[in-house]
Amino acid sequence: MSDLLTFHFDVDGDDFTSAGQASVQIKKHLRQLGISPETIRRVSIAMYEGEINMVIHAGGGEADVSVSEDEVIIVLTDHGPGIPNIEQAMQEGFSTAPDAIRSLGFGAGMGLPNMKRYTDYMNIESEVGKGTTITMKVNI
Amino acid sequence: MTVNDLLNVGSFSAVVLAEADREIEGVYIGDLLSWVMGRAKSGDAWITIMSNVNTIAVATLTDTSCIILAEGVTLDEGVKETAEAKGINVISTPLSSYSAALKLYSLLKI
Lengths: 140, 110
Prior knowledge:
The complex is a heterodimer. Chain A is an alpha+beta fold. Helix content of chain A is about 35%, strand content about 30%. Chain A has a five-stranded antiparallel β-sheet with strand order 1-2-3-5-4, with helices on one face. The longest helix of chain A has 22 residues, at about 35-60. Chain B has helices spanning about 5, 35-40, 55-60, 75-85, 95-110, and strands at about 15, 25-30, 45-50, 65-70, 90. Chain B has a five-stranded mixed β-sheet with strand order 1-5-4-3-2. The longest helix of chain B has 12 residues, at about 95-110. Chain B is globular. The interface between A and B is medium-sized, with 27 and 20 residues.
């Protein structure tokens, strides 16, 4: 693991339109590392959904990405309201996003399911009133 | 068929032409961005009426060959600049999503 690369991003909670900057940045880094386009696609989509979630629900947060020889690990941390019922939140179509977000094309209840679909491992730790930490892994 | 070829058949005009020789390998239609992000494939032409800055981010991440804005929708200047900066092809058409898809079908046969 001597060649472990790490990246850290602060996700701005005030600016919905700039959400996605971290994932686009990661996409660039991974491309420079010569990682396959399909892996890059999976990592950046999962991360973008996570970023959007942090902006919509948690007032922003932090994203940490580490890249080793055989996997990409993404850890998203926020100090938002937490997820009361993770099983329900994981269902396609379940959404608590406000109407203003829906009018922008998000809030379809696909965020967490997409994150799961595009990763090889996903774990959600959440405490109501304290925040949420999501860990995702994509095998290279 | 490339993005440039599509621009030569009529009804489709360039809003941002970043990579004219990009091959169109399929078609996806959708306006819910998370849905599109989960289903659109790399190389697809993505037909939508959503034209905010997040549309550009989704096209970047899914690696679609171009965004086709249906129903005469076009981009705000700021969004256009983002598309240019990110190298995303954006095409506008007065056709509905359905008619645009039919036209693409007749050209691509896929």
